[in-house]
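Quick one before lunch.
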Amino acid sequence: MSYLPKFTLFACCVGLLSCAQTPGTGQSAAASTAHTAANNAGSAPLTTGTATQQAPLSDADFAACIDRFSRDAINAGISEQVIRTSLQRATLNRRVLELDRQQPEFTTTFADYFNRRVTAQRVAQGRALWAAHRPLLDRIEQAYGIPAPYLLAFWGLETNFGSYFGNIPVMDSLATLACDTRRSGFFTIELMNALRIVEQGDIAPKKMVGSWAGAMGNFQFMPSAYLKNAVDFDGDNKRDLWHSKPDAMASAAHFLRNLGWVSAERWGREVKLPRNFPFLEAGLKNHKSIAEWRNLGVTRADNTPLPPVDIQASLLVPAGHEGPAFLVYENFNVIMRWNRSEFYALAVGQLADQIAGGAPLVQAPPTDAPRLHRQQVIQLQEALGQKGFYHEKADGIFGPATRRALSEFQHQQGLIADGFPSRTLLAMLGVLSD
Ligand code: CA
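Model of the calcium ion complex:
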């Protein structure tokens, strides 16, 4: 979302580059653009690696910061009692600082990302949980218009259906990040919002635990998302996103509705492309009607015609022309408002479809695609820049601009313009491969 800062690492998962492993947990996407700190744009996530240099936050700095923030909190209407029992008990967590400073080192391929998250076991668990909670999920769909399989898919991706919320006291992580210089502005707002949650009495401060970047509960809401979207759905007058499944699931549905979910539509679907498909038409920003895609020869993955609906769609080929192709609709953009990663949004859509009884991908992504080191992405960007295709800073992040530049280079060379960095293409551009 627009108020979020741009940075290169994901909090629980989401970073500029997209969702990768949650450091330290092995968990997948647990934080998002919309509801978490770290946020991530492209479709080629990076795994974590080296740390960047920055002046350390001392204990004295932290204590002085908490004093200053306590005064600000009083001025913002937080009670002294809440400040004393939550904010002033916060401790500096150096592990949080380390995680925040880690820089992604390698891109993650779509196959790596997808195959770790959309698994047969997770689909089976999603179906079992749907059966176990059907009346609740039906009521939530009636109230908010979000079908159960989507909620289950988000739940599965964020916290493996509530099996891991993170166990760092939110006051510690947010106070640490707010008092640190790197992303102080964003986390100062989140820390104040966390105090507001305590003030409202929804949860005892000591039970308020989350990811290292302060994402909380079953769906990993940041405090600002909690304040705007959390609802009490079990009728106890508290909004408990940790221990109450009705509250957590209804809050996620409420959040999705607020992000613009279109109840009558799907997220998108896997499709099949004809030979000689014009791959320059791919990309999230290129919208065409279903009829136009049909005219270009696009069918459903099982070769049957696309449905005769009058909606706009974009075409994605996250693993290049040898991998699966997807047509994505407005709800795909809604998922990306939750977490700005194309990989994440495709995983949510596919997991939801499979929980609803759909089949796995017809065209599995190739598993031998190269992972690129940050330095290789920089080399690639510089080479594309010298040839006049890439006009931005060579930042080592394989995002939409790099993919577009690569497609245009491929097109000029008479190659399939899928924007995918195959080994052959990297060699053509003089990028050293592994
Ligand atoms: Ca409740």
